[in-house]
Design brief:
Elements (H helix, E strand, L loop, with lengths): L1 H32 L13 H8 L21 H4 L18 H54 L6 H48 L7 H55 L7 H12 L21 E4 L8 H14 L5 E8 L4 H25 L6 E8 L6 E6 L1
Parallel strand pairs: 2-3
Antiparallel strand pairs: 1-4, 2-4
Helix pairs in contact: 4-5, 4-6, 5-6, 7-8, 8-9
Length: 402
């Protein structure tokens, strides 16, 4: 009995020891495989923990950089991208608003403005072509007359007179061209007023309530197009004004030249350009002087020595060429010169004869005056007087420089 009890105690103690041993072994195995979550110690980190931290990402080769993209604008294409059935669609159908009706009216006004501007452009082009054609015909007639005069011809040659009439008609055609361009300038001014009013209307339409985005886009396009039209209007107005100014100056100069040419045809002799045209050229050059110090010949001569002495021994005395040359040289040397015509009659004979000779001399002086005016000398720059000389055998006209 006693032995059985001892045996039982021995077996029980063995079981207890075995359980403690097995529990210690299991605890060691568990502690070998487990990774503690929190350890507070002043000792170095255990090997198991270091191995566990190194093996956390053991199966990961690399980590990609994450890039954040800016989201796209909200649109029906973006919202419905990748969907078989769109979630929703933006309504882009046109809407009949007060602003859209006003835009349609403005577009019609703009179309009419463009049409009027196109007609003006075509009119200007036609007038320019007509002016060039008239100028070419005029110069052809003048060149033919001057060529014949240079070769020599009879006074009052009817063929030259006919060509002179043709040249005058061509010159009048240029005068009509100026009137045409004046009318075009008035039309351009009217179109410019319409364009300015239309621009103001477009800018005012932006303030209308109830407009949609498409209305403002159409207004912006219309405003840009109208700005280009206004620029074209200003350019056409400048072209028209230049044509009028150039044609007016050209016409005035050629009319003076034609008067001198008619005098040359009547006398069968050749002269140069009209003297007044040469004077205007010199005055224009004098606006930009090279030196402010006057030359030795800048002052007017103080002597009363005549430039030309014309003796009328014959009623058909040909004096125009010599007169033209003398007056031309005087104006070249003294721009803006003034002249005096002195009718000189013989101071011999009785009173009746002296009166007759004085009247003849005055008529001759008036003839010289007309010739000088036809040559281009200003009539206000010519003074007339009369004198008697006993040594004069016939009537004379002295041309003096004053």
């Amino acid at each position: 009995m006693i032995k059985n009890k001892k045996m039982s105690r021995l077996i029980l103690m063995s079981a207890v020891v075995a359980s403690f041993v097995s529990g210690d072994v299991l605890a060691q195995e568990a502690s070998a495989n487990a990774v503690p979550t929190l350890v507070i110690t002043n000792k170095p980190l255990p090997t198991i923990l270091r191995q566990g931290s190194e093996n956390v990402f053991s199966g990961v080769e690399s980590v990609d950089t994450v890039r954040v993209q800016k989201p796209k604008a909200v649109d029906d294409e973006v919202v419905n991208e990748g969907l078989d059935t769109p979630l929703f669609e933006f309504d882009r159908s046109p809407i009949d608003t007060q602003a859209s009706q006003k835009v349609q009216e403005l577009q019609k006004e703009y179309s009419r403005l463009e049409g009027a501007l196109g007609q003006i452009k075509e009119t200007i082009r036609n007038y320019q072509n007509d002016g060039r054609a008239q100028a070419a015909k005029y110069y052809a007639s003048v060149a033919a007359i001057q060529t014949q005069l240079q070769a020599g011809t009879t006074p009052g040659n009817p063929r030259l007179v006919e060509r002179l009439n043709v040249a005058q008609d061509n010159l009048e055609g240029l005068s009509n061209s100026i009137a045409n361009f004046n009318s075009v300038a008035v039309q351009i001014a009217d179109v410019s007023s319409v364009a300015s009013f239309l621009m103001q209307s477009i800018q005012a339409t932006y303030g209308l309530t109830g407009a949609v985005k498409e209305d403002h886009e159409r207004l912006a396009d219309l405003e840009d197009n109208l700005s280009g039209v206004i620029t074209n209007i200003e350019r056409l107005l400048n072209i028209t004004n230049e044509e009028i100014t150039r044609a007016s100056g050209y016409l005035a100069a050629e009319r003076r030249n034609l008067r001198t040419l008619s005098l040359a045809v009547a006398n069968g002799d050749i002269y140069g350009a009209n003297l007044s045209n040469r004077l205007y050229t010199q005055t224009g050059a004098a606006m930009f002087p090279v030196s402010t110090t006057p030359g030795p010949n800048a002052e007017r001569p103080a002597s009363t020595q005549p430039l030309v002495v014309i003796r009328f021994n014959d009623p058909n005395t040909n004096y125009e060429q010599a007169l033209y040359t003398a007056v031309s040289e005087a104006q070249d040397k003294y721009p803006g010169a003034r002249f005096e015509l002195v009718a000189v009659d013989p101071g011999t004979g009785n009173a009746a004869k002296r009166a007759i000779e004085s009247a003849k001399s005055k008529r001759n002086a008036e003839r010289v005056l007309r010739s000088m005016v036809q040559m281009g000398v200003d009539a206000n720059a010519i003074a007339m007087s009369n004198a008697s000389r006993e040594d004069a055998r016939a009537g004379e006209v002295h041309v003096l420089l004053r």
